[in-house]
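Private note to self, pasted from the team thread so I don't lose it. Backbone tokens:
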């Protein structure tokens, strides 16, 4: 009887342990589901807060919306629609904006729209175009080559005061059509690295004393720098240089975190510029003015708290007059802007 009782007791304890293990497993599952739900809802709340911030900003300047309808999508924001006085409502957080690479294309349009907002705009380029000179910017700095260390040092040494926004748009498309079969131009590949990746890093380092807590740095990248998105091959120099720029942005975002300086790496879209002239007939290409508007609107809608320490590589797909910002890496929220 003693052995039978002992066996029954062991079976009873085994059943209790099994029940406890199952209960613990269920509790862990419930905890994981709850944690993921809270994380998901937190992201939704952040997106709603960002949208509310954008709506309030738009109301403050007396416009119904900066996000255009499909009929308005390709129409640039003109001074007639948004006066300088109106733009001051959204320009209060901006003082000095520096655009590096601005004699044409996206950079020129950025200078134009930042100037309309009332920013003190400094345009930096190798040679100023007539269009750039006609804008009447606060300052235009010519004969600046970001591949030359002495030039970038002179940039930082110029007494510009605190730099609130540093837009690094300079870049080249050398080797964008290169082919492994036909032979690669390694000189072009090295030039692409020097201009598209090393040059922007030099500029940020030169301006570092002028970047204060709350300043923002924007690096213009390309989808072609994405490893995951590369489905067609080729373009070795351009792809490699933009991938390197993405790493520059990631490291900068971490290194500048303690200073309160935000870093954004942005793909501006499929834009009609001299670099893409071979593809002007393809569907989905947009004007520099449209790209600059969308980039500026997205840039303004992001708060420093959401930017700080994050890298956001934005791949922008445009279909049916909508733009989607997909953030494929890091811990950033996905943003859809239509």
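Design output:
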């Amino acid at each position: 009887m003693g052995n039978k009782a002992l066996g029954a007791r062991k079976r009873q304890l085994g059943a209790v342990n099994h029940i406890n293990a199952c209960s613990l497993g269920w509790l862990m599952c419930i905890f994981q589901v709850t944690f993921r739900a809270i994380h998901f809802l937190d992201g939704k709340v952040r997106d709603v807060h960002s949208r509310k911030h954008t709506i309030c900003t738009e109301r403050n300047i007396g416009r119904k919306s900066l996000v255009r309808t499909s009929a308005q999508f390709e129409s640039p924001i003109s001074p007639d629609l948004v006066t300088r006085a109106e733009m001051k409502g959204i320009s209060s957080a901006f003082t000095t904006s520096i655009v590096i690479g601005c004699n044409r294309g996206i950079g020129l349009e950025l200078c134009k729209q930042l100037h309309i907002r009332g920013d003190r705009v400094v345009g930096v380029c190798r040679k100023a175009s007539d269009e750039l000179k006609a804008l009447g910017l606060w300052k235009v700095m010519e004969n600046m080559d970001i591949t030359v260390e002495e030039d970038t040092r002179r940039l930082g040494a110029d007494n510009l005061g605190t730099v609130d926004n540093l837009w690094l748009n300079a870049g080249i498309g050398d080797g964008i059509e290169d082919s492994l079969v036909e032979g690669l131009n390694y000189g072009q590949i090295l030039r692409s690295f020097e201009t598209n990746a090393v040059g922007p890093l030099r500029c940020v380092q030169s301006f570092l004393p002028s970047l204060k807590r709350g300043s923002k740095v924007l690096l213009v990248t390309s989808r072609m720098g994405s490893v995951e998105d590369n489905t067609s091959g080729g373009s070795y120099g351009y792809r490699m240089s933009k991938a390197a720029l993405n790493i520059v942005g990631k490291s900068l975002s971490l290194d500048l975190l303690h200073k309160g300086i935000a870093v954004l790496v942005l793909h501006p879209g499929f834009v009609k510029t001299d670099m893409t002239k071979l593809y002007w007939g393809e569907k989905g290409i947009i004007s520099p003015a449209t790209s600059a508007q969308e980039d500026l609107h997205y840039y303004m809608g992001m708060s420093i708290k959401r930017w700080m320490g994050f890298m956001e590589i934005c791949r922008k797909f445009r279909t049916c007059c909508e733009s989607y910002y997909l953030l494929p890496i890091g811990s950033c929220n996905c943003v859809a802007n239509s």
